[in-house]
Amino acid sequence: MSLHVVIGFGPAGAATARLLAEEGHAVRVVTTSGRGPEPGIEHVALDATDSARLIEVAQGATAIYSCAAPPYHRWASDWPPLASSVCAAAEATGATLVMLGNLYGYGPVDGLLTEELPLAATGPKGRVRAAVWEQARQLHEQGRITAVEVRASDFFGPGVTDGGHLAGRVVPRLLHGKPVSALGDPDAPHSWSYLPDVARALVEVAGAERAWGRAWHVPTEPALSTREMVGLLAAQAETGPVAVRRLSPVVLGIAAVFSPLLRELREIRYQFDRPFVADSRAYEAAFAVRATPVEEQVKATVEWWRGRLADAG
Question: How many Cβ atoms are within 10 Å of 194's Cβ, its own excluded?
Answer without folding.
Answer: 28
